[in-house]
Amino acid sequence: MKKTLVALAVMVAAGSANAGIELYNKDGVTVNVKSDFEVRYKKGTNDGDELKQEIDDAEFGFDTRYAMDDSTQVGFYMEFTGVEKDRAASKAGVKNVYVGFYNDQFGSFKVGKLDTVLDDAGVGSDYLFGVNSFVKQMDFNSDEAIRYDLDKGNFYASFALTQDKHETKLLGKDGRYFDLKAGYRVADFDFTAFLGQAKFEKGAIAGVKETLGALEGVYKGVENVTLEAGYYMAKTSPKTGSDKTDNTMALAADYTMNAWKFATGFSVTNYDDSSKDKLNKWFLNAGYTIAPSTTTYVEIGGNNGDKQEVGYGVGIKASF
C-alpha cells in the first residue's frame, strides 16, 4: 500500500522480512529468501499525463538466523532493490540492512537501516492511487534506526527511534525522530493508535517540529469482507509563528470472491492553511490471483484538485 503524508520529508520506516522461501535449515541455522516484483502501466491523475510503464518493485532479501537457545535467535537481514523512481536502476541498491534479536516471549529488537513504525499506518487495498493518510509522499526509512516490536495476540506494540549523525536526511546530526504504535484485537475488530515526532536541526528548517498521529480500525466480521477506517493528523510547529494542523478521514473496503478481490476507498483532507482547498481522493480496483502470491490488477483513481482527471492503470505483482 502507498503511504501519503502531509509533513516535511522526514526519514523513517518499520519492516520485517516476510517468511519467504527457506533455503537452509540445519543445526539451528535458517536462511530464507524473500522477494517482491511489480510491473505496471499507469496514467497519472495530472491533466496531460500519459500512460507509462513503471517498475514499482524489484526487490529480494536474505534473512539469516542463528538459534541462541530454544526461544531466542539472533539474525541478519539484507535487502536489495533494482528500482529507483519507478524505473529499473543500472545498479542494485541496498534497501534494508539490520541485525535483529528475536525472542518468543519478549518480541524482536532490530538495529540498522530499516523502516520505522509509521510505515505500518494507512488503510485501503490499493495498487496505484490509494487514499490520503498524512499527505505528501513520505519515505519512512532510516540508515540509523532501532525498532522494537511485541505481539501478545490481543495486544501489540512497537517503538522506533532514529538519528541523523551522518546528516544524510533532513533531521541533522542534532535532530531526533521517534514513532510508536499500540493496538488491541478483540472479536472481529483490530484497533491501532500511532504517534510520531520529528525535530529538525538542519538548514532552513532548523527548529521546526512535526507531529504525526493516527487512529485506525479494521472490522472483519463479515465473511470475505474487510472494512477499514482511519483518522490522521499532521501538525507542523515552526520555530516562530503559529502551528498548522492538517486532518484526514479515510474509509476503505474490500471483498474477496474466489480468486478475485475488489477494493475501494475514499478520503477527505482538511488543511489548516486557508489558501488550500479541501482534498478528496478515491480509488476503485479489481485484482485476480493467477498463481500463488501472484496478482494481476486494474485500478482507477482520482481527486478533486486543480487540473486533475481520472487516472488508471493495469499491472502484475508477485511476492514470496
Automatic annotation (TrEMBL):
Keywords for this protein: Cell outer membrane, Ion transport, Membrane, Porin, Signal, Transmembrane, Transmembrane beta strand, Transport
Membrane topology qualifier: Multi-pass membrane protein
Domain Porin stretches: 7-307
GO CC list: cell outer membrane; pore complex
InterPro entries assigned to the protein according to its UniProt record, in alphabetical order: Gram-neg_bact_OMP (IPR050298), Gram_neg_porin_domain (IPR033900), Porin_dom_sf (IPR023614)
Domain of life of the source: Bacteria
Cell location: Cell outer membrane
SUPFAM superfamilies, per the entry: Porins
Listed GO MF terms: porin activity
Pfam families: Porin_4
Any one GO BP annotation for this protein: monoatomic ion transport
Signal peptide interval: 1-19
Main location: membrane
Listed PANTHER family: MAJOR OUTER MEMBRANE PROTEIN P.IA, PROTEIN YDDL-RELATED
Subunit architecture: Homotrimer.
Protein name as annotated: Putative OMPH_PHOPR Porin-like protein H
Organism: Vibrio tapetis subsp. tapetis
